[in-house]
Amino acid sequence: MSKFPWETIKEYSDIKFEYFEGIGKITINRPRYRNAFRPETVMQMIEAVDYCRYSNKINVVVLTGEGDKAFCSGGDQNVKGIGGYVGEDGVPRLNVLDLQKKIRSLPKPVIAMVNGYAIGGGHVLHVVCDLSIASENAIFGQTGPRVGSFDAGFGASYLARIVGQKKAREIWFLCRQYNAQQALEMGLVNAVVPLEKLEEEVVQWCREIQQLSPLALRMIKVGLNAELDGQAGIQELAGNATLLYYLTEEAQEGKNAFLEKRKPNFQKYPKFP
Ligand code: S0N
């Protein structure tokens, strides 16, 4: 039971999507399956992440799982078919990869509130979040090579950037489980707190983040991503540079001159060394 008055933004079958004090909270709500995701879960999460992107009220996003046992146990093995996870429409998908990209390119901080098992594709979900705060009962690990899958994308390369190549290979090659303290020691999470204090701690981090400049945080996030993401990362960084340019009078002079059918005068604006 939360001590914060979360308001429902929209009702979904597989997730809870709530708001409080500038925070958008997305909770995977399938505790019966240790919060494993099926295609519909991921579609709903993508819609919620997009909502957070466009909302002026939401400054920071929290991702978590319902209950006290699991953050997320990865792809729902009951609906795994040939070609991916099969939704109610009969179409096999691996749309969690789209969700991973959405989380990374969301221009607002995303915090994983890891309240139990973060396993398989559920582990990768916390890895792609900007920050991870775990409860003392949290357990981390990849299972792919044991259950017939793998994530050689962010789940491998970004994981290795976080914990180092040797540790990332250990995580994938042995499919062991790690407790919260071990995760903290390998830099996989930012903090570990008792389960009953987890949400309070996460809200406190959200409050601190919201004291800071949203544009500065946005630029830092995109810069940290760009270093890893190659051409796609440069494109995102460049898009943000364009946004900043649009905010200048110099850029507005170009647009105004076009609309007023006159020559632009860019020389009147300051030049910086
Ligand atoms: C999480 C674990 C360790 C929890 O153990 P615990 O507490 O002992 O609970 P259980 O009794 O095992 O579970 C309770 C009930 O929940 C069901 N359940 C748990 N996890 C899943 C799941 N992932 N899918 C479906 N059902 C699940 C149990 O079956 C049980 O039900 P009942 O009561 O009926 O017996 C433990 O549960 C565990 O190890 N779970 C499985 C973890 C796992 O292997 N996950 C899948 C890993 N793979 C992926 O996530 C794929 C990722 C992906 O989508 C992907 C991404 C990028 C590229 C490729 C892929 C790809 O799919 O290939």
UniProtKB/TrEMBL annotation:
The entry's keywords: Lyase, Menaquinone biosynthesis
Binding residues for substrate: 34, 73-77, 85, 117-121, 143, 149, 246, 261
Binding residue positions for hydrogencarbonate: Q142, T143, G144
Catalytic activity: 2-succinylbenzoyl-CoA + H(+) = 1,4-dihydroxy-2-naphthoyl-CoA + H2O
EC numbers, comma separated: 4.1.3.36
Site residues (Important for catalysis), renumbered to this chain: Y85, Y246
Pathway participation: Quinol/quinone metabolism; 1,4-dihydroxy-2-naphthoate biosynthesis; 1,4-dihydroxy-2-naphthoate from chorismate: step 6/7; Quinol/quinone metabolism; menaquinone biosynthesis
A UniProt-annotated Pfam family: ECH_1
GO CC term (a single one): cytosol
GO MF entry, a single one: 1,4-dihydroxy-2-naphthoyl-CoA synthase activity
Functional note: Converts o-succinylbenzoyl-CoA (OSB-CoA) to 1,4-dihydroxy-2-naphthoyl-CoA (DHNA-CoA).
Family: Belongs to the enoyl-CoA hydratase/isomerase family. MenB subfamily.
Protein name per the record: 1,4-dihydroxy-2-naphthoyl-CoA synthase
Organism ancestry: Bacteria, Pseudomonadati, Bacteroidota, Cytophagia, Cytophagales
